[in-house]
Amino acid sequence: MRTSSKALVAATFAALSFAAAAPAFADEAAPPSDITITGGATIASQYRFRGVAQSDNKPVVQGTFTIAHSSGFYISTWASSASAGQSPINIGGTEIDVYGGYTHAIGKTGFVIDGGLYGYIYPGATTGNYWEVYGSLAKTLGPVTAKFGANFAPAQKVFNYNFTSTHRGNLYVYGELGGAIPGTPLSIHSHLAHTGGGFDLPKPYLDYNVGITAKYKNLALDASVVGTNMTRSDFAQSGLCSGAGSVGAIDVCSNAFYRTTKPVGVISLTASF
């Protein structure tokens, strides 16, 4: 709801009058709110999820919004434009994630726990919708933070549409290491993970990224290298391409899939509030 200029002026005079009439309260600060609202908008050269292109290696626009309580509970949403049509990874053009959980420091140990429920929604490809439970443990030592976590997707309908795997669940395990470079606006980050189960594409695979972020006020410019250990031959020998027909068709299929998983550079610019 937009506030009118007259209302703002009236409110200002009322506040000034109260301050003049009750100087004893002038030094009393308003108690901090238990609710924190944050968010941001991003433009990126492409969208990679667990090392795999979700935008056909094309630029995307993304946004996020989080409401957190001082107790540690939070809810959040995140959205991105995405690939569709003839792309090997067709998720309908849009992804919307909704998740919520709890995060808190463990006493004075320096460890921070985080866990919750995460939902992936694809309005243009609803058979791909699924959910996961997640958890992580992080610790900061000086400027460096280490984190270990896992996401587990239990049996659900999405796996009925995955014809290349007999698994009806998926486990994603990862480790991260990063931190700020003292005396500079720069920070570095790294990530290594393993996917195994119904989302393992041609095989259980590793994904990784390493990059550097430069911050200025509420802006963050990031440059990263992102990729997986999947190869063209992995796809050619998998159920994803083995039924394509001729050798030439299999080559076209394997090249198309490999393009979504090979190492690439990704650049993004994020504005936060």
Structure description:
The radius of gyration is 23 Å and the shape is globular. Strand 7 (111-121) and strand 8 (130-141) form a beta hairpin. Helices cover 13% and strands 48% of the residues. The protein is mainly beta. It has helices at residues 5-21, 232-236, 247-259, and strands at residues 35-44, 48-49, 52-53, 60-69, 73-81, 94-105, 111-121, 130-141, 144-153, 170-180, 186-197, 205-216, 219-228, 264-272. It has a 12-stranded antiparallel barrel. A two-stranded antiparallel sheet has the order 2-3. The model is unreliable at 1-27 (pLDDT under 50).
User: Which percent bin holds the helix content?
Assistant: 10-25%
Biggest β-sheet description: 12 strands, antiparallel, barrel
Label the overall shape. globular
C-alpha end-to-end distance: 19 Å
Mean pLDDT: 89
Strand order of the largest sheet: 1-4-5-6-7-8-9-10-11-12-13-14
Give the helix/strand class: mainly beta
Strand proportion, as a percent range, falls in: over 45%
Q: Which residues sit in consecutive blocks of at least 5 with pLDDT less than 50?
A: 1-27
Strands, total number:
14
Query: In DSSP terms, counting alpha (H) and pi (I) runs of 4 or more, how many helices?
Result: 3
In sequence order, what are the helices and strands, one letter per element? HEEEEEEEEEEEEEHHE
Instruction: Report the C-alpha radius of gyration, rounded.
Output: 23 Å
